[in-house]
C-alpha cells in the first residue's frame, strides 16, 4: 500500500485561464504546455490501517491549514474511487524553487495523484490519471506527460472528458526555457481568484475565448514543423491576451511588476537584433523566456545583467510521471 512517484512542473504556452466549474475544476478553454526537467516533486504515499487521519509532510515539515486540507480533500477522491476508507502518510519533496515563479501545485498534484492511486491499488491509465490530477490543480493534469501536452477542456459537466493528452514527447525537440526571477515579492491575486474575477467581470474575457482555437491550431502546426518562430509568436501573443483580460476586470489588476516589463522589452530588443527569443508569463510577475540551445549563453548573460533580475534558471523539456 505504498508508492513513490516523481512529476515535473509545466509551463503553459496556451494558457488555462478561466473555469466553468470551480468545484471539479473544468476550464473554459483548452490549454497546451511544455513539461520542464528542472523542477519536480517526489511524493510517497502509504495507506495504513493503523492511522486515524492523514499526515502530510512537505519538505520535512508537517503541513497544516490550507496545504493539508487540499491534500486530504484530494485523498478523499482517491479513497472514493477505490472504495477504501484508509488514511495515508504523504511525504513530498519539492524541487521547485518558489522564487522561480513556477506553481509547485502542478508537479505536486501530479506526483500525489500518481503515488496515491498506485498505493491504494487503482490501476489507472494515463488518461484516467490526468483526469484525477485535474481535481487537485487544473494545470497539473498536463504534467502527467513529458514534452508537449494539451488539456482538452471537454464538453461534459461531470468532467469525464476533461484531461490532458500527449502532443510530443520530451526528446522530440530541444527548446529551452529560462525562468527569469525578479526581486519582486509575493503575488497579491491568486490564480484562482484572478480567473474568477476575469470570468465574472472582464469584457475582454470573451475575446480571449474567441482567440483560443486559432492559437491552438497554429501552435500545434508550429510544434509539428518544429518551427520555433511560429511557436514563440503564438505563445507570446497568447500570454499577452491572457494578461489583457486582467486589465479589463473590475476592479482591474495586473500580475506584472516594473521589472516584468523591463524583461519583456529586452526580449523584444533581442528579437529586433535577429535572435529568436519569446516570453510567456503566468499568474505572477516572473517571466519565462523561450529560446533555442545555441543562444543560451547570450540570453542568460543579457537577462542576468538587467536591474531587478535576481536569478536565471534554465530548463529543458522534461519527462512525464515516473514511479520510483
Ligand atoms: O492550475 P492553477 O490553478 O495553478 O492555474 C494555472 C494558471 C496559469 O498558470 C496562469 C496558466 C496555466 O495554464 O498554467
From TrEMBL:
Its EC number(s): 4.1.1.33
Span of domain Diphosphomevalonate decarboxylase-like N-terminal: 7-164
Residues covered by the Mvd1 C-terminal domain: 180-296
Keyword annotations: ATP-binding, Lipid biosynthesis, Lipid metabolism, Lyase, Nucleotide-binding
UniProt entry tagged with the keyword Cytoplasm: no
GO molecular function, one term: diphosphomevalonate decarboxylase activity
Family from the record: Belongs to the diphosphomevalonate decarboxylase family.
Protein name: diphosphomevalonate decarboxylase
Organism: Virgibacillus dokdonensis
Gene transcribed to yield this protein: mvaD
Amino acid at each position: 500500500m505504498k508508492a513513490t512517484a516523481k512529476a515535473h512542473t509545466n509551463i503553459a504556452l496556451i494558457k488555462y485561464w478561466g473555469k466553468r466549474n470551480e468545484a471539479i475544476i473544468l476550464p473554459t478553454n483548452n490549454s497546451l504546455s511544455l513539461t520542464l526537467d528542472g523542477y519536480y516533486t517526489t511524493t510517497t504515499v502509504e495507506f495504513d490501517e493503523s492511522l486515524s487521519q492523514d499526515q502530510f509532510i512537505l519538505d520535512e515539515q508537517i503541513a497544516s491549514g490550507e496545504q493539508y486540507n487540499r491534500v486530504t480533500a484530494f485523498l478523499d477522491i482517491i479513497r472514493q474511487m477505490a472504495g477504501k476508507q484508509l488514511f495515508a502518510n504523504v511525504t513530498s519533496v519539492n524541487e521547485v524553487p518558489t522564487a522561480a515563479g513556477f506553481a509547485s501545485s502542478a508537479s505536486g498534484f501530479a506526483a500525489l495523484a500518481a503515488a496515491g492511486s498506485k498505493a491504494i491499488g487503482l490501476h489507472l491509465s494515463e488518461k484516467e490519471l490526468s483526469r484525477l490530477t485535474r481535481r487537485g490543480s487544473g494545470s497539473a493534469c498536463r504534467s502527467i506527460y513529458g514534452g508537449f501536452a494539451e488539456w482538452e477542456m471537454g464538453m461534459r459537466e461531470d468532467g469525464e472528458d476533461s484531461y490532458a493528452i500527449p502532443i510530443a514527447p520530451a526528446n522530440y525537440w530541444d527548446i529551452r526555457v529560462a525562468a527569469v526571477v525578479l526581486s519582486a515579492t509575493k503575488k497579491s491575486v491568486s490564480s484562482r481568484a484572478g480567473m474568477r474575477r476575469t470570468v465574472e467581470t472582464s469584457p475582454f474575457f470573451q475575446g480571449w475565448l474567441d482567440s483560443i482555437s486559432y492559437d491552438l491550431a497554429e501552435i500545434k502546426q508550429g510544434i509539428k514543423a518544429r518551427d520555433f518562430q511560429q511557436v514563440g509568436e503564438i505563445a507570446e501573443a497568447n500570454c499577452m491576451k491572457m494578461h489583457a483580460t486582467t486589465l479589463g476586470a473590475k476592479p482591474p489588476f495586473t500580475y506584472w511588476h516594473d521589472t516584468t516589463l523591463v524583461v519583456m522589452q529586452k526580449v523584444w530588443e533581442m528579437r529586433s537584433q535577429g535572435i529568436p527569443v519569446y516570453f510567456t508569463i503566468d499568474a505572477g510577475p516572473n517571466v519565462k523566456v523561450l529560446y533555442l540551445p545555441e543562444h543560451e549563453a547570450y540570453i542568460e548573460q543579457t537577462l542576468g545583467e538587467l536591474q531587478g533580475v535576481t536569478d536565471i534558471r534554465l530548463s529543458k523539456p522534461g519527462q512525464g510521471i515516473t514511479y520510483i
